[in-house]
Amino acid sequence: LLVLLILIHYRKCISMNESIPTDGVYMSDSNTNVKDAPAFHENPYCKALNNAKDIQFDHADVEGNAQNGPVVRLSFALLFDALGTCLKDESSVLLLYSLVHGNCDFQEYVLVRTDLDTLLMPILEMLYNASRKTSNQIYMLLIILLILSQDSTFNASVHKLVLPSVPWYQERLMHQTSLGSLMVVILIRTIKYNLSKLRDVYLHTNCLAILANMGPHAHRLSAYASQRLVSLFDMLSRKYAKLAELKNDKALKVMSDQMEADIISDDTSTELHIYTDFLRIVLEIINAILTYALPRNPEVVYAIL
């Protein structure tokens, strides 16, 4: 597995005197200027993994397009089950990310599976134990969930799949809760952990984006998940109010020294702006539930009231 990961993620940089192919440019940052961005040769192993097909389908391409060269064929069913049993290993998570991100066929296969808990339960358990994970591991898990949550079928499926119990969740007994409700609880728990320990804006944004994708499709969200969602809004609004008050107080105290006032104002303004964005997204999530899924979520209404 480690050798495979090295092969598919290795990129040989194009030297300055070589021509840059239009399809071989890797942007490390979306804001990077194209001229300054490092350019890499096409990786044949990565291309092979991204074009891999399910062995159960006919060899002829569905759309009738001829494939360029030989195509790797493997059993998506066996791969799905194998990944579900070993996702506690970081290298397995990276392979799942590579497949979900790069291989459209595998991503579609995952989205139509009815037993999504096979993959999601190990991922949620790792996020539950976020304090034992590195920030890179947490990112990888969240990005996998973010990619999957962009599909409406996935969002509908997770809310309809009921779990008899969640043995690794220690704070309270969770019997007959939906996978969607558990996802909401774990994502909010990750946000609260990040607020107190990591304080990483990008991690927050990913968690909230997943919740925003799930919002319109929420179906019978549990009382506990609803209460956690409202408590998240409460916590963020209190933090926002405290920052706004702090900004006003500091501005008044140092009005005599204009330069110092500007520095303090800038620092507080940045954090205030971040919390404004967080609050806006949480309000959008609640609004999406109330707008598109109100009759199916009485517990959310009760928690808000």
TrEMBL record:
<keyword id="KW-0732">Signal</keyword>
<comment type="similarity">
    <text>Belongs to the dymeclin family.</text>
</comment>
<keyword id="KW-0449">Lipoprotein</keyword>
<feature type="signal peptide">
    <location>
        <begin position="1"/>
        <end position="15"/>
    </location>
</feature>
<keyword id="KW-0519">Myristate</keyword>
<dbReference type="Pfam" id="PF09742">
    <property type="entry name" value="Dymeclin"/>
</dbReference>
<dbReference type="InterPro" id="IPR019142">
    <property type="entry name" value="Dymeclin"/>
</dbReference>
<protein>
    <recommendedName>
        <fullName>Dymeclin</fullName>
    </recommendedName>
</protein>
<dbReference type="GO" id="GO:0005794">
    <property type="term" value="C:Golgi apparatus"/>
</dbReference>
<dbReference type="GO" id="GO:0007030">
    <property type="term" value="P:Golgi organization"/>
</dbReference>
